[in-house]
Amino acid sequence: MFARTSIRLGRMATTFAQRQAMSTLNQQAKPRTSRLRQIKRAVYAVGLGAASYIGWSMYQTRNPGEQEPFDPSKKTLVLLGTGWGSTTMLKNLDTTNFNVVVVSPRNYFLFTPLLPSCTVGTLENRSIMEPVRLLMRHKKREVKFLEASCIDIDVDSKQLLLERRSSSDAKLTGKGGADEEPLKLNYDYLVVGVGGTVNTFGTPGVEEHACFLKEMDDARQIRRRLMDSVEKASFDDITEAERDRLLHMVVVGGGPTGIEYAGELHDFLEDDLSKWYPELVDRVRITLVEALPNVLPAFDKKLISFTQDTFKENNISILTRTMVKEVKDKTFIVQNPDGSRSEIPYGLLVWATGIKAQPITNKIRQKFPEIQTNGRGLLVDEYLRVKGAKDIWAIGDCALSSYAPLAQVASQQGKWLARKFNHLSNDDLITDLFLQMNAKTRPFKYSSQGSLAYIGSEKAIADLPFFNRNITAGGVATFWFWKSAYLSELLSLRNRTRVAIDWANRWLYGRDLSRE
């Protein structure tokens, strides 16, 4: 009897302990379950918010609102160009204060930092092109666009002479719409943001035989010549010397553009050409020619060394202290560091060495010969006003100041000038906008956001300011930072989506080898 009672009591105690333990576990599990529910709700909320934002942005892009018409009582502000400076200014400008007219031979903004990616099919061309009318149509007051080139200016009567032509027309015909009667356009205020054109430094044969990397048409031409060279090299009835010539790709210029193109070209060979042209890929050579002692002279020495080591691993030859003296149809002549000259055969030669002033920039400069004495562009003061001129500003690569001709400089200048115009009154009592700017604004000051460059093999380099010092980094992690930085800098959600999809497509399916 006593034993049975003891067994029952033991079982009751065990059951009670189990229940207590289960209760304790349930109490501990409740906060965990609650946390999981909170995390799920947060994820759902973020997803819903992102989807709503994307949907609303798409709706706004496709359905612009009504705009105020041109007001004859307002003054006319003309923007020349659709590059970094002019487009950024247009994006940030309050058009209710002025009648705004944009003049450019191209009707789109080109995100030039990613242009090398288009030459090998990493990105599709239209992914980095933003139609200017998309920006114009979303302004409060109507903005007019004229697809034309400014060929002359009368600074006394404030009148521009325009030639009705597009950049593609000029490429195809060599004269565009020169046979048509020029158009005259009056302005009250003029902002010159026409950028620069390729500088060949007078080297014979460059214009006739080399490819440039400045505009989208240049990227298309490089892609065509690249695929032509590869396809011609695949024929069996050519000599081995001719095959080696066709498969020698040359980049002239060791700045960021030349370095990034060489890196993109290497990736194209390794990732795609090796699969579809296995018999040719081992014979392809890439050579980079630079006249200075080092490539990337604006970057930190550690990053220069890292880039050179990466290129060496990727079998990209670097010829420093080497000047190109002449470019022929199938060969180019260089002056070596010791002063001797060599003739080197090539299949594709890309010229990425620098810029010079556009013709209209020189036209404006010639109106003020005593002040505008620098042939590289327009001298401007600390308020970005063209020295010697009245009611004319210059931004971007065509403006000569103490800053380097960089995209981020032009972008900051465009934002700064837009803000100043937004704060200025259009009252008829104000007759001198220059004096008003002196009284109300601080001079423009550039704030460096650092420098980035892609060097191939999913590696990039970064030279970033941090308080009073610079942070340098290079490698795969920097490559992902490079991608995220450029993705965020794209002008619209439309472009960001397209670029992201192109990157995904390249990873899934490889680059498109078709010749345009």
TrEMBL record:
Alphabetical UniProt keywords:
Oxidoreductase
The organism is Linderina macrospora
What is the protein's given name?
NADH:ubiquinone oxidoreductase
Q: Please indicate which superkingdom the organism of origin belongs to.
A: Eukaryota
EC number(s) per entry: 1.6.5.9
* EC main group: oxidoreductase
Its gene name is NDE1_1
